[in-house]
């Protein structure tokens, strides 16, 4: 019988910057259609992990497998074409264009395939529904609220139709209402796509997460349900800055 591969698997993944070991022997597995949250205090290694997954950094050691493809050290556009999309915290939308135009441009330049104008228009309609901005499709992005602009950013990632979506602090700076809406959007996306979400807001993690991976000092310290992780005294100590063995 054919082996069922995980969607993503890292083995012994390590990233050193001189004497700093930013990721240390990280063995991480994500199943198809899984939604995983990554948490950990500042400097724990979450951004470095994302940068290796998207090709911004070449690991010092270890492997990354996306389905059957070894991707460690591949270029970012090659990894995007294989189906990994990322929303970073760096703004990536055109403020002078409408919501629809931003998503349309992203669909047209999607790295995975040459989207025809007709297909791009279909993708735009699907994406606008998913980010719940159909009613604001013609609004200029620069005039939207912070939360709405973040949803447009997510929309531009979705427009490339990735299989795995990485979100770096999607609820940062949002109002409570926007945070709840973001959790709903993520749950909707997760009906058809896998996601890894880095987030500091524990209330938000409670809203979306099933399984949580805790990074500490470049290593995976714990992996469990959101309830178990948030109740764990080591996790609390790490966030309070106490010394805890990784
Ligand atoms: N380009 C770099 N050169 C040197 N050190 C780096 C570099 N990038 C990250 N580091 C170090 O690697 C460690 C992990 O950093 P990283 O940014 O991955 O953590 P993080 O968990 O994403 O933190 P935050 O929540 O603050 O974003 C830190 O000690 C950081 O200073």
TrEMBL record:
<feature type="domain" description="ABC transporter">
    <location>
        <begin position="8"/>
        <end position="242"/>
    </location>
</feature>
<dbReference type="InterPro" id="IPR003439">
    <property type="entry name" value="ABC_transporter-like_ATP-bd"/>
</dbReference>
<dbReference type="Pfam" id="PF00005">
    <property type="entry name" value="ABC_tran"/>
</dbReference>
<dbReference type="GO" id="GO:0005886">
    <property type="term" value="C:plasma membrane"/>
</dbReference>
<keyword id="KW-0813">Transport</keyword>
<keyword id="KW-0067">ATP-binding</keyword>
<dbReference type="InterPro" id="IPR051120">
    <property type="entry name" value="ABC_AA/LPS_Transport"/>
</dbReference>
<dbReference type="GO" id="GO:0016887">
    <property type="term" value="F:ATP hydrolysis activity"/>
</dbReference>
<dbReference type="GO" id="GO:0005524">
    <property type="term" value="F:ATP binding"/>
</dbReference>
<keyword id="KW-0547">Nucleotide-binding</keyword>
<dbReference type="InterPro" id="IPR027417">
    <property type="entry name" value="P-loop_NTPase"/>
</dbReference>
<protein>
    <submittedName>
        <fullName>ATP-binding cassette domain-containing protein</fullName>
    </submittedName>
</protein>
<dbReference type="InterPro" id="IPR003593">
    <property type="entry name" value="AAA+_ATPase"/>
</dbReference>
